[in-house]
Amino acid sequence: MSQAKATPTVQIDNNHLRVTEWRFAPGAATGYHRHEHDYVVVPARDGELKLIGPTGEVSFAKLQLGKSYFRNAGVEHDVVNNGPGEMVFIEIELKDTAIGKTV
Q1: pTM for the full model?
Q2: DSSP single-letter state for residue 44
Q3: Per-residue pLDDT tens for 4-33?
């Protein structure tokens, strides 16, 4: 049985940034990925995410409605909704910070 996929909806995508709403049913996951840009996450609900890193290490992150956090480009993980209800957050990727980009 395959794992349910989180649903991304791109709201803005221009030369400077991409804004995506992510919706996760309980147990749904993004799939393993690497962030090519610095990014900000803005939780739209309280919840808990399970983060699975490149070597299989597992950590957990508690998200709080409206309490944003920032991460640098290069983060690699699969993100899974570890809570009993739907999880929703907005991800803002800063394209001007792309890995390998020269100014």
Answers
A1: 0.90
A2: S
A3: 999 999 999 999 999 999 999 999 999 999
